[in-house]
Amino acid sequence: MAANEDRTLLLEVDELSGALNYASVDIPSAQRSQLQAGPAEHDDEPGTSGMNTENHHYIGEKQVIGTRFLSDPCELPHVCTPSTVANLALRTSYKVLRDLRSDPNASSKPPLRHYLDTIRSIDQDATLENDLRVRVVDEYRGDGFSHKKRAIRKACSTGHTNPVTMDNIPSYLANLWDGSAFLQVKEHGMHVYISDSSIEKACKNALSVLVADAVHSKAPRCVKKGSQLYVIHGVCRGGFDVPLLYAIMEKKDKQAYETVLTQLKTHLLRFGADLDGLHIVVDYKRAAIAAIRTIFERSTLQGCSFHLALAWKGGEMRSG
């Protein structure tokens, strides 16, 4: 091929073997448009080097100068640039999931944080016009976070190497969004989680009742059998129920309950709770009752009728 001579590449298809071969030929401009439109219905014209266009498929012009290609002859015959709102949102979603899978620290944030960060990045994308940004954000949101939560969580877990245990708590579980501590007590066989914000809001809205109960089926798998998730809710003005404390407990003796209740009392006093007028509703576990009488000595202790029936049935009230 002579230097500085413009040539055009054609893609030859071998009808027997199906192999693809590139042929470099001279094609006049008029003939190029006919080839792009489809096979010619007339005989070959001068300049096609005797090539029958019915046996070849022209997929685009590839210019060559000397022995140097100006572009990749094997590239796709079109550019995959999304233009519609749906395609832009879909491409964004694919890119986010791909980046999360390749990020070893992706699991340090909860899925909701990644979801909101994606919406924020779209809203701040300077390459999109204002109206288009709003529409792409709406399209990406779709039916809400619940429809993307599973995919985001799966992508984050791809690079996750350290499982969550009682001794290994990632920052997104130990801390809240504002950076404040959520995990207040971390001991062997015990975690206590309290949100200062929840305690503060409950105290400002006339916290009057504490309701404590344990759930055994929701304890983490990493703790020993028989452990419990101990939850304390607060009832505020108007009957609104607010979760105040979560505790994972392997031991259920008086000392363990005192550790949990001491943390709650400290936070309540910090935000001005009236402990004298506080009513505490509990089940009939003796260790829990004894700990409450020790820690909340000025509060009123009440039993739950539902748990009383369970206690009678289980024979736990035989000794009074």
Automatic annotation (TrEMBL):
All residue ranges annotated as the MULE transposase domain in the record: 224-308
Family matches, as InterPro entries: MULE_transposase_dom
Region (Disordered) residue spans: 30-53
Pfam families from the UniProt entry: MULE
Record's protein name: MULE transposase domain-containing protein
